[in-house]
Amino acid sequence: MSTEITWLGHSCFSIHTGKHTLLVDPFLNDNPLAPLKADAAEADFILITHGHFDHIADAVSIAKRTSATTVSNFEISEWLGKQGVKDAVGMNHGGATSLPFGRAKLTIAHHSSVLPDGTYGGNPAGFLLTLDGAKLYIAGDTALFGDMQLYGAGGLDLAILPIGDTYTMGPEDSIEAIKLLRPKCVLPCHYNTWPPIEQNVKAWAELVRAQTKAKPFALEPGGKITV
């Protein structure tokens, strides 16, 4: 079964597996690039990589409205529960859990994490997702690190990587990440939302094609690909 991925701007993605809709890092209402607002977002599951506002801002309102299950690190899941989210799955680095859409493994990310109210946000993370017919790696906000080679060892249909620089890896380090991960396809994120993370995504895509075997997709917000 094919999996459809829609970029909703910044690091927010909607993933449709055919049976389920996964919403990653919901940041819509205050996202200048988002093609829709939080009250229009659908989700059966909400995946949250870390606690920064630009990744979790709309998670509580969407989870309450849709009754979605949230999936995050343990500290964020505890915080979400205190905000009234009824179904929050908490994990830690290296742990995996089976859910109705497939299997989710929480991976390392080298970044920081604090929740919007100043509460400790636990360790930032990424996700390895094994879906029906597709394997995805969502890096989250992170620097380049060598263990990415291990995440790609089992084969990846798609890697979603930040390229904005300043707060995460930039275009050059993302190329090295792609070489370690060896995905069939790659999507960039966490760029062009604000001036400090502006990037030439077409130039990035040319680097990907020239230096790796992955197929790059440079989407406009609201754009979709199928893997």
The appropriate CATH architecture is 4-Layer Sandwich
CATH C-level name: Alpha Beta
Oligomeric grouping of the chains: single chain
Distance between the termini: 9 Å
Topology, number of strands: 14
Please identify the structural class as seen in this structure: alpha/beta
Biggest sheet overview: 7 strands, mixed
CATH superfamily: Ribonuclease Z/Hydroxyacylglutathione hydrolase-like
Main-sheet strand order equals 6-5-4-3-2-1-14
Measured by DSSP, the beta-strand proportion falls in 25-35%
Number of domains: 1
Quick structural gist:
With 227 residues, this protein is of the alpha/beta class. It is 21% helix and 29% strand. It has helices at residues 53-56, 59-66, 74-82, 148-151, 171-181, 201-211, and strands at 4-7, 13-16, 21-24, 45-47, 69-73, 88-91, 96-99, 102-108, 125-131, 134-138, 156-162, 183-189, 215-216, 224-226.
